Amino acid sequence: MNPSTRLYHFTTAKFALDDIRNRRLKIAQFEDLNDPFELKSVNLCDPKHAQAFDGIEELDFEGYKSALARRFGVLCFTERKTDLLQWSHYADHHRGICLGFNVSHSQGKYGPVEYVSERFPFPETLDVEFSWRLLRTKSKIWDYEKEWRVFLDLKDGIWSEAAGRLLYFADFGPDLVLEEIIMGASNKTPISDVLHAMQGYNEKVRVSRMRLSCDRFELEEHPIGG
After folding, report:
1. Where are the beta strands (DSSP E) in the chain?
2. What pLDDT score was predicted for residue 61?
3. pTM above the 0.85 mark?
4. Domain map of the chain by residue range?
């Protein structure tokens, strides 16, 4: 078994309860992510490179970026469960929930994001290593997120009428073990709803709540229950 790392996933209260109840996480597709430079950490100043990468609509040529985004999705995690900005951006302004997992996956498809100051040169060969580098590289402006990613093939999708497209999910299991449920400082979800969603879990999952520090601009974690 691959070694695991304790990592955290921010989301809304509704989605968190659905995740806990259904024992799965939604796999994000790259078009859903909030960085306009996703999969574009390479220098594209040469028009030929830009066309090969972005495609040519008039010729119905998809391009490398779209092909990569159509094949892979991503599970996004962070090392930092007390980060104020991520609670604001990804957990409904502190009204959401953070889920803590022991995460382990095959080498190459799992690891920390590399943050860089400049876009790297366009390679001579668009090989597998280039694909992985694109998937895991972001601008240094995002460094505060301390992000880790798991890349998964998009397969066995489930049609969603609300989304108007296929959605993809990763089931909880040996590579994705739920260990913590952390309620946001402004979360109003009754603890009974959380405990109800946890029914049937054999493992001991720790439940806690974030509170505002009384003397610092920080969040403090407080356990709930025994």
Report:
1. 5-11, 24-26, 72-78, 97-103, 110-112, 114-116, 137-139, 147-153, 158-160, 165-167, 169-171, 176-183, 206-212, 219-223
2. 61
3. yes
4. 5-223
